[in-house]
Amino acid sequence: MKGVKMHSPCCSYKLILLSVLLVVLLTSTTSSEGVVPRTTNNVESSEKIYGGERVYATEFPSMAAIMHFRFLFWRFLCGGSIISKKYVLTAAHCFDQRLEDLTVTVGYVAYRYGAQHKITKIMKHENYSRELITNDIAILEVNPPFTFNADKKPAVLPGKYEVTPVGSSGTIVGWGWTESSHEDGLRKAQVQIWNQAECEEAFLNIMPSQICAGGYDVEVSVCYGDSGGPLFVDGILVGITSFMRGCATYVPNVFTRVSYFREWITLMTSV
Ligand SMILES: *[C@@H]1O[C@H](CO)[C@@H](O)[C@H](O)[C@H]1NC(C)=O
């Protein structure tokens, strides 16, 4: 990890200027990685924000922001969901690159004001495939543990292999954050659960361990679902945002189907 961290005061003006220039150069060339949901081949990653609406502080108390420290700043990496005092559920692909200095912030809609919790362990699913983007699920252990209150609570998990009916109305939540455009505040958008066959037409291989959901129309944002963030149906965390094809297209987002991994979650966390 090529993070530029300045621990000790040092150096002459020239050196400081040089490092500032370097930091600016480096950050501008590595801008949008890991920030928007992963896109599939042949499709452009859109950085525009469509539709969606602001949410209230206590509306999604399980919402977590995964932040990493790079080039002097804390940056947003992925969304996640609190599932217990010690654990956060998110997408495995958020950790494709080796990252240091990771924290989880929770507790309020704007991640920059949230309480910080160090990530002490990253547990990716052993069958996570980077190429196919399958089994895209990971659990993070945090320290100190969360203290629950009105704006910090665990998400309700689905039962083992519980089916989410096609056509159900779902809600995706996220900061919809990219480094070129972002709003300071959590947003949500309504989506509809697709049937697997239709989703396969859009994305060739869709596994039973994945669930698709998309906007009702082209104007509705699916861009707000940050990678790793939640898809709720009736208040239950049924999906984890895994990948998408740009924004404002009538193509669904693909989510990791949480009910499919319910036993794995228990195995890893006793939750
Ligand atoms: C991973 O895949 C192997 C081979 O299909 C299977 O035996 C194993 O149970 C899987 N692991 C998990 C955690 O599901």
Automatic annotation (TrEMBL):
<dbReference type="InterPro" id="IPR050430">
    <property type="entry name" value="Peptidase_S1"/>
</dbReference>
<dbReference type="InterPro" id="IPR033116">
    <property type="entry name" value="TRYPSIN_SER"/>
</dbReference>
<dbReference type="Pfam" id="PF00089">
    <property type="entry name" value="Trypsin"/>
</dbReference>
<keyword id="KW-1015">Disulfide bond</keyword>
<keyword id="KW-0378">Hydrolase</keyword>
<dbReference type="GO" id="GO:0004252">
    <property type="term" value="F:serine-type endopeptidase activity"/>
</dbReference>
<keyword id="KW-0645">Protease</keyword>
<protein>
    <recommendedName>
        <fullName>Peptidase S1 domain-containing protein</fullName>
    </recommendedName>
</protein>
<keyword id="KW-0732">Signal</keyword>
<comment type="similarity">
    <text>Belongs to the peptidase S1 family.</text>
</comment>
<dbReference type="InterPro" id="IPR043504">
    <property type="entry name" value="Peptidase_S1_PA_chymotrypsin"/>
</dbReference>
<feature type="domain" description="Peptidase S1">
    <location>
        <begin position="49"/>
        <end position="270"/>
    </location>
</feature>
<keyword id="KW-0720">Serine protease</keyword>
<dbReference type="InterPro" id="IPR001314">
    <property type="entry name" value="Peptidase_S1A"/>
</dbReference>
<feature type="signal peptide">
    <location>
        <begin position="1"/>
        <end position="32"/>
    </location>
</feature>
<dbReference type="InterPro" id="IPR018114">
    <property type="entry name" value="TRYPSIN_HIS"/>
</dbReference>
<dbReference type="GO" id="GO:0006508">
    <property type="term" value="P:proteolysis"/>
</dbReference>
<dbReference type="InterPro" id="IPR009003">
    <property type="entry name" value="Peptidase_S1_PA"/>
</dbReference>
<dbReference type="InterPro" id="IPR001254">
    <property type="entry name" value="Trypsin_dom"/>
</dbReference>
